[in-house]
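Question:
When you can, review this sequence-structure pair and walk me through the tokens.
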Amino acid sequence: MNFFSIGAPFILLFIILFFVVLYFVPVGLYIAALTSNAYVSIGTLIGMRLRRVPPSPIVSARISAVKAGIPITIDKLESHYLAGGDVPRVVNALISADKAGISLTFEKAAAIDLAGRDVLAAVQNSVNPKVITTPLVAAVAKDGIQLKAISRVTVRTNIDKLVGGAGEETIVARVGEGIVTTIGSSGNHKVVLENPDMISKTVLSKGLDAGTAFEILSIDIADVDVGENIGAQLQTAQAEADKKVAQALAEGRRAMAIAQEQEMRARAEEMRAKLIEAEAQVPMAIAEAFRAGRLGVMDYYQLRNIQADTGMRESIGQSSKPPKDGGES
């Protein structure tokens, strides 16, 4: 056996151990932290590997913080990573806040980050206010004319209220509500068109940023357009509805009148039937009077003469009436 056949396994084991050590101890990171006065012990680096925490972003964030004069322990950074936070973004936010003179602690920045807010963007918006363009808001003045307005809201992030404070959507909704209220309380739409700044003044006076994570700096009306004549449309619709109600009531009265007419005709037919029945009993009464001796022959003939005379008079009276259709009688 020669030397190479005996030493090859040891060389292979040495190479494997060398890479294992390099995995658990990132020498480059250790030297970078050491030379940046952001010392991280080898035991801490090995512990991070065992806890499945990547050392690179943690150590790099600590180096950036120390270089910016912000002392943050490696334990805090590792804890924030294990909690699901974005360590580099939190450290960058702390550095930006420190340079801008904004009071922001690591605990508050970590809480904002874990709450789902972009802490770095919040710090940047505190330095450079953000402009929010509201969607088109339509409102109707008291004279019935619709106005459509678009506003631009300049806001600055209120870092102290980022945790638990309402977001951008609430600001947009409240400003829209203020625009609707201001236009709706105006007696004439021309007043709003002549003084669009009355909208921003009214909205700002209401303190709409209360309870939100933003501070409203200004509200500018970017555009105001005249929309439809809603008042005239409502009046037209109301008149159409009143007409339909009146038609329904008239139809009801007509149906009631027809029903009453039919009822009166039925009653007339009923009375006519009773009259015919009564007339049919007259001959029987006369016959009974003959049998009882209460009516003589002369009395009967005199009755017949009276009936014939009455019939003749009725015939003469009907012939003297003008025809109903204008024709000859």
User: Anything to note?
Assistant: The mean pLDDT is 86. The chain is about 65% helix and 10% strand. The beta strands are 130-133, 137-140, 145-157, 214-229.
